[in-house]
Write a sequence for this structure.
């Protein structure tokens, strides 16, 4: 998210092709006690959800992207400086609800930099690692694919040279810890690189890929362009051509004046309050143009596309939010993209935690 800024998707992706191409202030509660069956760094796929072995010919990168399907971000929890500071503490019930609703995956935004030593060897806090273990286990044991990323590492983008060793050490620790996990766990290199040049980011991202590949030679990895993961910067993305286990992500919050109206973390957004999205011709054409841009880049470069974030903030009216969300999701699916809505139960939430119920217009927009 720009924080300064049931029918499954497999059907939704295949059928169009066959037819010729379709904060809130949540009350913090204590986390669910960790299960005694919590995975360790050596847990294998036989302990969790079964999946196609990644060494089989059928397990290509496009199939891996299709498997991500329709997802939702578990935002404002592990991405906060400390879990709970932004009103969300993850619970086992979250994962059950998401799976039972019919989602295929979760994206787990994680602020590793807040739990990593500032000096070499840049060790990650063991207690935080265990908490991430718990969250991954909850998702996998509920049959959900998991995208695990590095979120809100702003220090990296302000000082890429000074933070490079720490960044790579973080990934080496993550990759080593989860090397034996099933291929339903995906690694996303970094969330929304910003204030960094494409040339510098391309080199840094390639080094991170190399660091991960030392222990995870066949793990599905998700990579991104600069400018807050903008589709408009895909043309500047340079990837190692020999690595075909890469999925490319972008984020979509346009028109920004609609999706972020009243957003407290963005200056001046109160003047956008009342902005509607009615699905008129011009509005629909703008979305289609943007998604066509991303889809064409993916086709030209033979890389599958994952729409890792999209959503409209709760200050917009629900009818407009549902219309926009449904249109973006269906258009992404028609272009063969997997997606993850931003987010589960905070300011953009599809689930109302205080009332313990889904926001039905948004849920139906995502899972019609």
């Amino acid at each position: 998210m720009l924080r300064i800024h049931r029918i499954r998707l497999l059907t939704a992706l295949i059928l169009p092709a066959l037819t010729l191409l379709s904060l809130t202030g949540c009350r913090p509660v204590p986390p669910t006690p960790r299960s005694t069956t919590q995975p360790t760094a050596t847990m294998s796929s036989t302990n969790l959800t079964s999946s196609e072995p990644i060494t089989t010919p059928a397990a290509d990168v496009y199939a891996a992207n299709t498997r991500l399907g329709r997802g939702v971000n578990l935002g404002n929890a592990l991405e906060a400086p400390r879990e709970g500071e932004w009103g969300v503490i993850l619970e086992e019930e979250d994962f059950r609800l998401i799976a039972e609703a019919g989602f295929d995956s979760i994206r787990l935004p994680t602020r590793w930099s807040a739990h990593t030593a500032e000096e070499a060897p840049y060790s990650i806090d063991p207690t935080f690692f265990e908490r991430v273990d718990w969250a991954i286990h909850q998702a996998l044991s509920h049959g959900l694919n998991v995208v695990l990323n590095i979120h809100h590492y702003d220090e990296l983008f302000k000082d890429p040279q000074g933070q490079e060793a720490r960044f790579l050490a973080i990934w080496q620790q993550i990759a080593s810890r989860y090397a034996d996990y099933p291929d339903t766990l995906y690694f996303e290199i970094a969330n929304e690189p910003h204030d960094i040049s494409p040339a510098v980011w391309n080199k840094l991202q390639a080094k991170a890929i190399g660091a991960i590949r030392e222990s995870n030679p066949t793990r599905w990895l998700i990579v991104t362009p600069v400018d807050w993961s903008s589709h408009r910067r895909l043309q500047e993305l340079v990837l190692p051509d020999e690595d075909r286990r890469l999925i490319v992500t972008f984020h979509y919050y346009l028109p920004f004046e609609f999706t972020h109206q009243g957003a407290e973390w963005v200056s001046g957004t109160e003047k956008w309050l009342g902005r509607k999205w009615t699905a008129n011709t011009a509005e629909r054409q703008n979305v289609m143009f943007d998604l066509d841009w991303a889809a064409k880049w993916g086709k030209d470069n033979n890389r599958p596309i994952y729409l890792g974030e999209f959503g409209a903030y709760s200050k917009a009216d629900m009818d407009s939010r549902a219309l926009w969300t449904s249109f973006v999701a269906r258009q992404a699916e028609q272009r063969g993209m997997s997606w993850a809505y931003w987010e589960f139960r905070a300011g953009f939430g599809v689930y109302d935690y205080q009332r313990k119920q889904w926001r039905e217009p948004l849920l139906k927009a995502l899972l019609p």
User: Anything to note?
Assistant: Residues 9-20+38-366 form a domain with the TIM Barrel fold (CATH 3.20.20.80).
